[in-house]
Each structure stands twice: as C-alpha cells, then as structure tokens.
Amino acid sequence: MPSAIYWACGRRVPLPDVIHSMNDRCFLSLKFSPEQQRLLHAYQQPAFCQDAKWHPAHNLHLTLVFLGQQALAVQQQLWSQSLELLHELPPFELRFDELNQFSHAKVLYLGVSQPPAALMALQQQLQQLALPFLNVPVPEQFVPHVTLARKFQSVSAFPLAVPPLSLLCTEVALYHSISTEQGVSYQSVETYTLVPKG
Ligand code: 2AM
Questions:
Q1: So where are the chain's domains?
Q2: What is the number of alpha carbons within 13 Å of residue 196 lying toward its C-beta?
C-alpha cells in the first residue's frame, strides 16, 4: 500500500498531502490530432484580447466529463467501463461554427451550434458512469466547446458566427491536468480510437 510504504520510510508529510499526491486531476475528453489542433488554433486571435491567456495548440481539446481528483484505481475502473461504451461508437463529425464566451468564467471558446446526437449521448453516458465517483459538482448543462482563451473579456456581441470547421472525431482519452511552471498541461494517459461500423 503506497501510503504505508511512504510512512515506513519515515518521511514527515501530513496525511492530506499524501492523499493529494496519490490522486490525479482528471477528465475524459475528445482528443484532436496535431493537424486538427492546428486548424482549431487558427480560431485563436490574440489581438482580440491581449490580456487573455490563450491556450497553446497542443492543449486544445473538448472535455466530456471533468472528474476532479481521482485515485489510480478509480481512473482504471472508469476507463475500462468507458471502453465498453466506446467500442459501440463509430467516429462522428463535429462542425465548429461559432465563437462564444462563458462570460462569468471569462472563457472564450469555439462552439458547435448544432451538436450531433452521438456526441450528446456519449457525454450523457460517460457522465452517468462517472457519477458515483465524482467529488465535483455536475454541470447543469453540457455545452460542447473547445476553450481558446481564459481571462477573456470583450465588449463584442456573442455568439459570433465564424467560417465553419468540420472535424472527424476519432479519439477519446483520459487526460491528466498537470500544473507546470509554464502553466497547465493536459496529457492523455489512455486513448481509444473509435472504429467505423458496418
Ligand atoms: P474548459 O475547457 O471549459 O476549461 C481540465 O481542467 C478540463 O476540464 C478543461 O477542459 C475544463 O473545461 C474542464 N472542466 C470542467 N469542469 C471543470 C472544473 N470544475 N474545474 C476544472 N476544470 C473543469
């Protein structure tokens, strides 16, 4: 048991820190290829708000379920249950067509005005799977989005229609959110590639 070994080594670390270090900040997400991230990155316009924090292209993703801090055993259980759902799901297309903001959270995002039923059903099913393990509030409504910038403020009227970008979504991943000196980094630790059916 890792915590027992930890104390047997005589390290004087308060218990909450030990618990914290055994958990990872996690989320389930659509994963985009580097080429898709490059296309999404084109919608980031730093001139739009110079004070905002613009996500680097390699961090662009679409969160399905935020899991919060979770132990490895829970992550493994959730991922294997997720795979049972994902095996049934073929790749699907998303058409990003609007810039919008969560004004209270100062987030600018690229959104999908007409989310496909496949995406909404997948999100609902994954949210249901995760429910028994969640230590964070469940959002009232799922708004599919790719966050482009934080600390974003603008007087522009949103939503703003943009030239549409259609992407074929083929990968779903379990991510860790890792704080680094350079800022947060999102790293996929498990990835599943959706298989075309029929
Ligand atoms: P965002 O895309 O709107 O920023 C990692 O933090 C990912 O989980 C981000 O994509 C973030 O959404 C999402 N997320 C959802 N709910 C969250 C919460 N309560 N705290 C932190 N991140 C959350």
A1: 5-193
A2: 3
Per DSSP, the chain holds a count of helices (H) and strands (E) of 5, 9
pLDDT at 20: 55
Question: Are 148 and 44 a contacting pair, CB within 8 Å?
Answer: yes
> Ligand 1 test: best mutation among 62, 66, 143, most atoms within 8 Å of CB?
66
> Domain 5-193 has what CATH class?
alpha beta
Q: What is 54-94 written as a DSSP string?
A: EPPGGG--EEEEEEEEEEHHHHHHHHHHHHHHHTT---EEE
Task: Give pLDDT tens digits for 9-24.
Answer: 445 445 455 555 589 9
For 138-164, what is each residue's pLDDT tens digit? 999 999 999 999 999 998 899 999 999
Per-residue pLDDT band at 83 (split at 50, 70, 90): very high
Q: Which of 27, 31, 172 to mutate to test the pocket of ligand 1 (most atoms within 8 A of CB)?
A: 27
Atom of ligand 1 nearest to the CA of 146: 2
Cα 64 to averaged position of ligand 1 atoms, centre (Å): 9
Nearest-CA residue for ligand 1 atom 12 is: 63
